[in-house]
Design goal:
Elements: H1 2-18, E1 56-67, H2 74-77, H3 89-98, E2 104-105, H4 116-123, E3 125-134, E4 140-149, E5 157-169, E6 174-188, E7 193-201, H5 202-209, E8 213-214, E9 224-225, H6 226-231, E10 238-242, H7 250-253, H8 258-276
Antiparallel strand pairs: 1-5, 1-10, 2-7, 3-4, 5-6, 6-7, 8-9
Amino acid sequence: MRKNNFAILLFFIVGLLFSQAPTVFDPGAYKDAIYDKENAINRRFIPYTYLREADVAWEKRIWRDIDLREKVNQPLYYPVELITGRISLFQLLSKYILSGQILAFGTEEFIAPLELSVIRDKIKKCDSQSQMNVDENGNEIETKIFVCDSTSIFRKIRTYRLKEDWFFDKQKSVLEVRILGIGVFTYDEDKEALKEEFWVYFPACRPFFAKHEVYNVRNDSERRTYEDIFWKRMFNSKIFKESNVYDRNIIEYALEGINNLLESDRIKNDIFRWEHDLWHF
């Protein structure tokens, strides 16, 4: 009898040792990475140094276009769909504009911000659709539902336009640039021209740009943030306009094609030549 009891007890203990407890899902244990990425999350943007009006010896306002069709600028456009760990520039702007943390403006003067409902309609196109449902008695009931396509404008984005000021700081003896605003432009196929959607004030976006990474085509472990991309000028662009007495852009006096590109390069070279001519060797 004792042997039977001992055998039953031993079998029970062995069963407890080899039995497996039910698996409990822990979100923190299933990471889509081999390490915790804390660099971008904890990044803070570098504030601009104070600039006195008396220290600005020369200044030139420039508008330049970033064409998203160019290969070097594609990290600003992709991904098209929402994925883990990456976010496009438009998705970043949309996220903080819809949450009210970034203001969107209709023009580049940043005078009157757009209403949230207006910018929501620009970012998310919603259409009403009919849906037939059956009630408990078997009768069909028609209901109206709203389906929003958040990628309708996003897929039409062709250009980001930068409004920036180049200036020479005689206190530090350096030529610097500061971006004032970013304009979002889509392509209107009917008019075959760019369409202005909205503008954002760049200094207000910098705290959010510093916390989101941009894809690095050469090394996944050395991704820059959007703050780094604009700070280090890691994009390709073409000058669209310079400040002038007529307030006209290049295309108004230099037709598209080689003349347009040559005029854009001339303006760019004039800026750096101005700094070069200050020094004597």
